[in-house]
Amino acid sequence: MHHNQSSPLVGILMGSDSDLSVMEKAAETLKEMGVAYELNISSAHRMPDKTAEYARTARERGLAVIIAAAGMAAHLAGVVAANTTLPVIGVPIKSGALKGVDALYSTVMMPPGIPVATVAVDGAVNAALLACQIIAVGDAELAKRLDDKRVANRAKLEEKSKKIKAELGLE
Amino acid sequence: MHHNQSSPLVGILMGSDSDLSVMEKAAETLKEMGVAYELNISSAHRMPDKTAEYARTARERGLAVIIAAAGMAAHLAGVVAANTTLPVIGVPIKSGALKGVDALYSTVMMPPGIPVATVAVDGAVNAALLACQIIAVGDAELAKRLDDKRVANRAKLEEKSKKIKAELGLE
Amino acid sequence: MHHNQSSPLVGILMGSDSDLSVMEKAAETLKEMGVAYELNISSAHRMPDKTAEYARTARERGLAVIIAAAGMAAHLAGVVAANTTLPVIGVPIKSGALKGVDALYSTVMMPPGIPVATVAVDGAVNAALLACQIIAVGDAELAKRLDDKRVANRAKLEEKSKKIKAELGLE
Amino acid sequence: MHHNQSSPLVGILMGSDSDLSVMEKAAETLKEMGVAYELNISSAHRMPDKTAEYARTARERGLAVIIAAAGMAAHLAGVVAANTTLPVIGVPIKSGALKGVDALYSTVMMPPGIPVATVAVDGAVNAALLACQIIAVGDAELAKRLDDKRVANRAKLEEKSKKIKAELGLE
Amino acid sequence: MHHNQSSPLVGILMGSDSDLSVMEKAAETLKEMGVAYELNISSAHRMPDKTAEYARTARERGLAVIIAAAGMAAHLAGVVAANTTLPVIGVPIKSGALKGVDALYSTVMMPPGIPVATVAVDGAVNAALLACQIIAVGDAELAKRLDDKRVANRAKLEEKSKKIKAELGLE
Amino acid sequence: MHHNQSSPLVGILMGSDSDLSVMEKAAETLKEMGVAYELNISSAHRMPDKTAEYARTARERGLAVIIAAAGMAAHLAGVVAANTTLPVIGVPIKSGALKGVDALYSTVMMPPGIPVATVAVDGAVNAALLACQIIAVGDAELAKRLDDKRVANRAKLEEKSKKIKAELGLE
Amino acid sequence: MHHNQSSPLVGILMGSDSDLSVMEKAAETLKEMGVAYELNISSAHRMPDKTAEYARTARERGLAVIIAAAGMAAHLAGVVAANTTLPVIGVPIKSGALKGVDALYSTVMMPPGIPVATVAVDGAVNAALLACQIIAVGDAELAKRLDDKRVANRAKLEEKSKKIKAELGLE
Amino acid sequence: MHHNQSSPLVGILMGSDSDLSVMEKAAETLKEMGVAYELNISSAHRMPDKTAEYARTARERGLAVIIAAAGMAAHLAGVVAANTTLPVIGVPIKSGALKGVDALYSTVMMPPGIPVATVAVDGAVNAALLACQIIAVGDAELAKRLDDKRVANRAKLEEKSKKIKAELGLE
After folding, report:
1. How confident is the model over A65-106, as pLDDT tens digits?
2. Is B36 within a domain?
3. Which residue in A159, C102, F92, G67 could disulfide with B105, CB within 3.0 to 4.6 Å?
4. Cβ(F65)–Cβ(F87) below 8 Å
5. CB D51 within 8 A of CB D80
């Protein structure tokens, strides 16, 4: 039985409402995997107090992992990580002239002491899967669901491979 | 009481013996935090079977997290992640002409389905701390030790700040 | 006489079905040059066993060259090359925020011991021509066809040059 | 008369004590220009509360400008700017594998609403001069000293030009 | 009372009329903040005399800050800064094949002696806000308006956060 | 029996004598694998006729593969490939301010029609191994030697792994 | 009197017919400046003999300057420069995944001995103007026309500046 | 007969005295080719009036070409080019954290109307040769000397090739 209705284990933060079109895939993936989550806009720059407070109280409120997504000079994940020792997953968002390279460097190049677990630019699905994998260290059922999803994905991809070969007259 | 002598929770893999000078800081950090670990050279390219086998059996052997460090076209973390649903932390190593940008992109830009939790280029200490943070989701004592370490680091930095100000005659 | 119907000499692998729009030009080029090929989706990350198995058995199944195309953290060519000593041609695919620079670095910056013959980002035609050139080392007729194709291309380009000059009133 | 002994107008913050070797040139420049300053280590990540508090109280404590220097994922200037509407000057520090490109992007690519006045990587002297120029908007004497310094610099450079020409036998 | 009708405190320069679509946001922001401004096209390359003259006479004409926006090899801000000790804010404009990285480097990497306060690529709004923050060092009312704007922005963002959570059925 | 003394199968070209310190590893690897080679300096820019002539006559002189190494605007491999349909392997050399990124792009980004099989920056060993792999398509003994070398390399790396673990007291 | 009908002084070469959409602006500019030119497609890779021959005979055929435009691994300008001591102007063309950075590096980073006068990516107009400036070293009338064109451009830009200010109600 | 003692045809400008170690090779090359030159430090930023004046009067003082070398945000060549229609050759100098990429972009990416003939980063020799090639358009003797130098360079390189082959026992 999935604990969808229970209190959230994963907190998704976004630096801007424009990040939602990317990050809703993280929400969908968590839902699909049966992991309860909450979601907030909490800009590191425009809402510094809310962001720090959210991170500082995250563990006591029952969160296990925080996913933080931001673009450009993406400080959100780092600022959250500075205020908690929960695992923080950073999602660099592609936006502006530099197309996400700025957000990638701003998120991943953290100095010693304050790690951020960074995924690919716009890597919302992988952020959610990584959160699940972290929770699954102590949740064998969830680990099983993750394994099952991989098997299913592999089968789907194998189907596509067959279809393409048929279309090209190669089988 | 630290479980240093117990069976390893973290597996450190390196693509080459030359990565050791960077990665020994990860080993030291895990030791300091009291988290048992093992360490192996397991090149994704030169030892593909060993690497896949290591990853496939990691959960049943009791590992909770795998740290994978490699330079240049750094496929190690991705190959490990492809063979387990344990959390995999990737450490891009600075080596060769491109100075780690190649390793960073090869480690972090994983396609949807197979996440790698990437830290900074040569980010060995943060890889170890992140592994601890992941384990601490289910280990309140370790979480406490992580919090204590932060407080201690802050105090040390504050000392340095005071010393510098004294040297500059600013206080 | 071209050996189009015979058993394949070139194996094309793609990390994702979305790579087909680029890679079908490789298939067309091989067909045009009369070199038999096969084509499969075989993601290094989502199908690690299939990929390793494919590479390990390639030589005994009669393949001479493998072309591996993937985007982002493009490990496919490297993983294939790790499992065979056949020549492996890597095609970095432009996709995602970094537009193929990530795939280029992930494909070309292989450590000593496991080479990948890398072509340009999205260089599907050249991957096929390079495969032909490799096979033509032992196939004088194919070498002749490659030379003829160059002569024909040159003539076509010369035609275009003349047409442009006429349009600009320069001749 | 210079107001060197008076209460500080410029606050210099550094993310790490290792930034001092670069930033002491900012301190020297402010001293030379007769602008009182203070200096602190205040890591955005390791001292988030101190940093926010410093920025929030800066204006009421009489500061006119804050200079913030940090390397790698350099969030310091952005975090300071998020907590004050005083002008904040960011100095990206060259350190680690990416040699300051990461710090530059992390400092300059701020989203709309929270500006950081960014100078060159390791641009400590210019950060100090820019702080002076900002203060000089309301301090005609300081503006005069800035103009004088430029004239003096020009003369020095002209001397060097003559010396080189003499050495090369060109005059 | 806003001093909108009074003589300009901020001079906006653009290297090309094509920069207007970005820079009109700077003009709007200054208007909104009640800071009088003027605006000119003054290419560093095509109008070198006008540009130097503009900068040289800026302080005596009552300007407090100059904002200079240019794309590609963006020399405008540097050339202006070379001719005045007023604070000069540089806005790198995204244009041409390199998409603003060229303009960013050309604007921010100024040698010691001649600072340019650089904002993000296409960062017109922040350039205007930074100009306001500089003027507000000596204008408590403007400082108050800047603080008020931040509070208002925060409230708007909080509204968006609530709306998104409602839409996702998370509250 | 190795055909070391026989007429060369691989031609190594270098754009400059300064490339020898990198490329001698290619020569050593070919020697070790028992593949006869020749070696020449033949700058695409300073010796255009020699270079074109070398490439045009390569097949009839019995060469099977050409390895071309050059730094900066590295045109050598492309120019050689333009004059032969033999497989041409390009080795970008790290030199000058851009540290080999220029040589990599100049070598790998060939337009459709003229492929260059590019290896890593300074990838001399892999260039030689790739040449061997190409020749081994028609030489089962060489293929066997390549396989044996991989097994030997793997064993050496496994030894290093054990030694490190012993040193760290982990076994 | 313009010598439009006379024998060409400038030779424009393009690596591909797809470069025409950019390079026709070079042709138009030369026409406008009254400098006779010729134009050819001459790919360094697909037409190596034609290209070398063209360059070798250029001076004796009366050309004064050659403009060479190419994309990706843009060897055309370098190959032309290798075969003549006439001034060669290189125009890197934006095309393919790397958007012209590859062409820029391939064109500008020439090794000592064989210079290429490189202009901006897609800088067709400036290539033509530079060719005129080179010819104008020995042609005072052309120098005059170049000066006049600058004055005219300045006036046009000043008009645009006035129009924009009028539209914004700033004058 | 070389016109070494005559009035200078080439003016070398450097943005800083630290550029001399690179640019003295340009002076040596001009001397070797028998082309009279002058040399000045003339920073675009610290000596804007001198620089503009130098460029504006260059043609009437008898200069044929100006070489301008600068590092970081290298505006010198562009500023010179803005003030003359003589051909201006830009030499980006490697200095500071970005190692010359900043200087390259700042020099080469000039907007339409004001061309700069850019050579490689630190390309002092090629700048001098290009200046000679430009002058040689109207000076057949100099053209002959340039051709002779190429032949001599080729012979020297051929000697090196033979020496290396002898050392490796390949001939």
Report:
1. 999 999 999 999 999 999 999 999 999 999 999 999 999 999
2. yes
3. C102
4. yes
5. yes
Does A85 lie at the interface with B, CB-CB under 8 angstroms?
yes
G81 and F CB contact within 8 Å: yes
Query: How close, in Å, is residue F37 to chain H by CA atoms?
Result: 9
Distance CA A126, CA A115 (A): 18
Tokens describing residue A15: 């630096």
CB H28 within 8 A of CB H87: no
What does the DSSP assignment read for D117-138? EE--TT-HHHHHHHHHHHHHTT
pLDDT tops 60 at residue E3: no
Q: Cα dihedral angle (H105, H108, H109, H114), rounded to 10 degrees?
A: 150
H115 has pLDDT over 50? yes
C21 and C42 fall within a common domain: yes
Tell whether C164 lies on the interface with F, counting CB pairs under 8 A: no
Q: Do F146 and C85 touch (CB under 8 A)?
A: yes
Q: Examine the domain organization and report whether A146 and A119 are in the same domain.
A: no
Q: What is the pTM of this model?
A: 0.97
D153 part of contact set with chain H, CB < 8 Å: yes
Statement to judge: residues F33 and F47 lie in one domain: yes
Give the ipTM of the model, two decimals please.
0.96
Backbone angles phi, psi at A92, to 5 degrees: -70, 130
Residue B169 contacts A where some CB pair is shorter than 8 Å: no
Which residues of chain F are within 8 Å of residue B98 when distances are taken between CB atoms?
Answer: 99-101, 121
CA dist., res. G150 & res. H114, Å (int): 9
Assess if residue B1 is contained within a domain: no
Mutation target to probe the C interface, by most C beta carbons within 10 A, among G10, G21, G39 is G39
Q: Which helix (H) or strand (E) holds E12?
A: strand E10-14
Note whether G99 contacts C94, CB cutoff 8 Å.
no
Q: Would you call C156 an interface residue with chain G, using a CB distance cutoff of 8 Å?
A: no
Indicate whether A122 and A162 sit together in one domain: no
Q: What is the CATH number of the domain that holds C43?
A: 3.40.50.1970
**Would you call B84 helix, strand, or coil by DSSP?**
coil
Express each pLDDT in E118-160 by its tens digit: 999 999 999 999 999 999 999 999 999 999 999 999 999 999 9
Kindly give the pairing relationship between strand G37-41 and strand G10-14. Answer: parallel
Query: If you average pLDDT over residues B118-122, what whole number do you get?
Result: 98
For residues E43 and G155, what is the distance between their CA atoms, to the nearest angstrom? 12
Dmax (CA) of chain F = 61
Cα distance between residue D20 and residue D18, in whole Å: 5
- For residue E12, CA distances in Å to C4, D130, D171, E42, E128 come to 67, 18, 43, 10, 9
Cα distance between residue D47 and residue D84, in whole Å? 17
**Pair A120, A156 in one domain:** no
Q: Please tell me the distance from the alpha carbon of residue B23 to that of residue F165, in angstroms, as a whole number.
A: 13
AA identity, residue D30: L
G59-83 mean pLDDT: 98
Question: Within this chain, do residues C132 and C150 fall inside the same structural domain, yes or no?
Answer: no
Give me the percent of chain G exceeding a pLDDT of 70: 96
- Examine chains F and E and say if they touch (3+ CB pairs below 8 A): no
Distance from the B137 Cα atom to the nearest Cα atom in chain C, whole angstroms: 27
Per the domain annotation, does A1 fall within a domain?
A: no
Q: Is H3 a domain residue?
A: no
Q: How far is C25 from chain A (nearest CA, A)?
A: 12
F89 and F150 inside one domain = no
Number of structural domains, chain B? Answer: 2
Q: Which two tokens stand for residue G160?
A: 């645009």
Q: Work out the minimum CA distance from F16 to partner chain B, whole angstroms.
A: 19
Q: How many residues does chain G have?
A: 171
Cβ–Cβ gap H112/G118 under 8 Å: no
Q: Which residues of chain C have pLDDT under 70?
A: 1-5
A95 and A170 both lie in a single domain: no
User: Structural domain of residue C68, as residue ranges?
Assistant: 10-138
